[in-house]
Amino acid sequence: MRSYLLLIAAFFSIGSSLAYGQGGKAEPIRIVLAAQNSSALLKGTLRNGQVKDYVFAGFKGQTVTIKNATWNIFDFRVFNEEYFDEGDFDSSSTYTFEIPETDDYLFTVRKKIAGPRVSRFSMTITIK
Length: 128
Prior knowledge:
Blueprint: H1 2-21, E1 29-30, E2 38-47, E3 51-58, E4 63-68, E5 74-79, E6 94-98, E7 103-111, E8 118-127
Parallel strand pairs: 1-3
Antiparallel strand pairs: 2-8, 3-7, 4-6, 4-8, 5-7
């Protein structure tokens, strides 16, 4: 009887951990640039309202330029809780800013509701 109860407890604990593991938010993809003055091309496919998160390391005083080739369907946001929290989603084709402090910055791409349900995005991030 005791082994039967242990078996049931193990079954429910494994099942519940698997259920809670589904649908969680994925870790952001780290953007690694090869050199000090370098660029990265970000491409992907998203559905209406979906987002894709990236993270990059920024050093105080660097200039970041984001070119959004798909500005009419996708927007983006740069965010850092301590140093860059006023960032809102931006739909411009080119956006440039200076890194306020050395830290990691979250870069989020979002599919707008307008347009086709599923679309491909293409953005270039350059850090100098």
